[in-house]
Write a structure and sequence with these properties.
By secondary structure, the protein is α+β, with helices and mostly antiparallel strands. The protein is 18% helix and 37% strand. The radius of gyration is 27 Å and the shape is globular.
Length: 550
């Protein structure tokens, strides 16, 4: 006769600094089996840290543990909210299973687990405490600003991305991450599956068993996924955010018809596994479905919706096409960002700073989603002028979009730790915006600069409360000077402090201005001679009574 499976009893070895080891008595059908199976998990963790539970069992070698097993968990927090997550197999023989949960509140959590394996049911319960931590949480859209990203605790990081295609297969991944940190890069974009530049880099990131020419999509290479975990964890420790691309070299373009859709069961297993294993990492900015594969909207919608349904943390999802002047499918509900690729040159005749780069940036802001330029021209795209590239990045920041630094050093030369053209200048962007401005409340503003002379362009951003503005001035051609220049500004009546910032050094110039604007007339600011580009940082001061114009 059928018998109800009782919950497992626990014998706790309690140590508040270590993991709890729980020995289980497992009831299978009508037979009671004393077993060495056990479950381990930490008793205390910090908020936004991953709580990982490990279940060890005696494997059945006739079972494919990736297809024929299921580990499910339900976690209930101190607020009574329930979160359901799936676990995953973490051994090729099926002897180890893990389940991960990332708490977002402090307090006590309880959980229930059920492992279905070879016709057996293993049930367990436990609890753990969550204390205050140092991380900011998951990435989500700002509910008050559809074009801005934020973290769970309300922080608004200035995301500055770099391509790192082969990171997950590189022997020097830790050094690469450390180098990115030293250059103020805080997002890395890479493939979960990628063999770009294989004949030069000899790196193939392959998450399945088998090889590319003879894949086994029913099983996963555990050693590869464990390396993924090492890299994700280290990046999280270093406050590096991640942009994993699910497919790069593999192209899934299965037949779709008007009335019938053929599901991709092999890849559903892959999506389910990667969500179970990776979605608990809060430092994922968004999952990208494909790299430069703007085909089969039906398939990609099916893929995105499958992942969204499986993901308990609602990570953002997008995809990408090749170089375009707009974003791919910004109208689709599942597409959380307006992603563009701009593999373009540093030739002003072909790709002018105002005529092309600023225009593309402004185009992305028109979709009412966070704009993200996900690949930018590098050497093989003839974007070789480091000064011009510097101007491209500042112009995109003025257009109010996030962007990615793309180079050989993140691609075929990843193991050489090569620094690319303009990378030495990229490091100055984040400190300026994060330390000196309230950049998250700024928008492009075409009303501040009434006119400019002696310079080729002047782009402005201002805060919505009019308390602060940044103006980017520059010459189109690299190496040229603005010997004598001036900008005519339209500012509200108030007192202002004006500083000048050099994008080539990351330093403010010693000379500064304090001015009073007493009425609605325009103010003419004479700008000292500069080479290539200069930023003007304007902030209101507390009083207009005692400051004279200088």
């Amino acid at each position: 006769m059928d018998q109800e499976y009782p919950k497992l009893s626990f014998y706790f070895i309690i140590n508040r600094c270590c993991s709890i080891i729980v020995m289980l008595s497992i009831f299978i059908c009508t037979n009671t089996v004393e077993s060495s199976e056990n479950i381990t998990f930490p008793e205390i963790i910090s908020k936004y840290e991953i709580h990982e539970t490990t279940v060890r069992i005696k494997p059945d070698l006739n079972v494919n543990p990736f297809k024929e097993t299921l580990l499910k968990g339900e976690y209930i927090g101190p607020d009574g909210i329930s979160t359901k997550v799936n676990g995953f197999c973490d051994s090729s023989d099926g002897s180890i299973f893990k389940i991960r949960f990332t708490p977002q509140k402090e307090g006590t959590y309880v959980f229930d687990l059920v492992l279905t394996y070879a016709g057996k049911h293993i049930e367990a319960s436990g609890k753990f405490d969550v204390v205050i931590g140092e991380h900011n949480g998951f990435i989500l859209k700002d509910p008050n600003d559809s074009r801005r990203l934020m973290t769970s605790d309300g922080s608004k990081p200035y995301f500055l991305s770099k391509t790192a295609w082969l990171l997950l297969g590189s022997s020097r991944w830790k050094e690469f991450i450390d180098l990115a940190v030293s250059y103020n890069i805080n997002v890395l974009r890479f493939g979960l599956e990628v063999n770009y530049y294989y004949y030069s880099a000899h790196i193939d990131v392959w998450p399945w068993e088998g090889i590319r020419s003879k894949p086994d999509y029913s099983r996963f290479n555990i050693e590869t996924w464990q390396r993924f975990d090492d890299i994700f964890r280290y990046a999280y420790k270093k406050n590096i955010y991640l942009e994993p691309v699910i497919f790069t070299s593999v192209r899934r373009n299965i037949d779709s018809y008007k009335y019938i859709f053929i599901k991709d069961r092999d890849m559903e297993l892959y999506w389910q596994y990667l969500v179970a294993r990776l979605s608990s990492y809060p430092n994922i900015v968004f999952f990208q479905l494909f790299n430069e594969f703007g085909r089969n909207k039906i398939y990609q919608t099916y893929m995105a919706e499958f992942i969204q349904k499986a993901d308990p943390y609602d990570h953002l999802i997008s995809t990408s096409a090749g170089t375009t002047e707009g974003a791919i499918w910004p109208e689709l509900k599942w597409n959380g960002l307006a992603v563009n690729h701009s593999c373009t040159s540093s030739n002003p005749d072909n790709h002018g700073l105002e005529k092309y780069y600023y225009r593309i940036g402004k185009k992305l802001t028109s979709y009412n989603k966070p704009g993200w330029i996900d690949e930018t021209g590098r050497i093989r795209h003839k974007n070789t002028d480091p000064v011009y590239r510097r101007k491209e990045y500042w112009i995109w920041s003025m257009a109010d979009v996030y962007f990615n630094y793309h180079s050989r050093g993140g691609c075929e030369n990843i193991d050489t730790l090569e620094i690319g053209a303009a990378e030495e200048f990229v490091q100055y962007l984040r400190p300026f915006w994060e330390k000196e401005t309230q950049w998250w409340s700024m928008r492009p503003d075409e009303t501040i600069v009434v006119s400019h002379e002696g310079i080729d362009f002047a782009f402005a951003k201002s805060r919505t409360d009019s308390e602060e503005a940044v103006i980017y001035l520059g010459k189109e051609k690299s190496g040229t000077w603005a010997e004598k220049s001036a900008i005519e500004l339209k500012l509200l009546p108030s007192s202002y402090s004006i500083r000048l910032f050099d994008p080539s050094t990351g330093l403010f110039l010693k000379k500064y201005f304090k001015v009073n604007v007493l009425d609605n007339t325009t103010y003419k600011l004479d700008v000292p001679a500069f080479k290539d580009d200069l930023l003007v940082h304007i902030k209101k001061t507390s009083s207009i009574n005692s400051i004279d114009a200088k």
